[in-house]
Amino acid sequence: MLISALTALMLFATPAVAEDWKDAWGEYLGGDYQEAFRLFKRGAEQGDAVAQYNLGLKYAKGWGVPPPLLNET
Q: 28: exposed, middle or buried (C-beta count within 10 Å: 0-12, 13-18, 19+)?
């Protein structure tokens, strides 16, 4: 069901956003998590639900996300 929903969302994405998603996915598969994160973020900011979902995963897993700053007071 999740795959069906993601596929449907991809079909309704604008071409520019769809290209960002494809580029981001390629970077992710290639192991460049920082670039994938940047591209997913750009798509998410443009309203792409697939990019928003993937960006959330990157935050949850810490892939391509800078480590949190520690408060050392």
A: buried
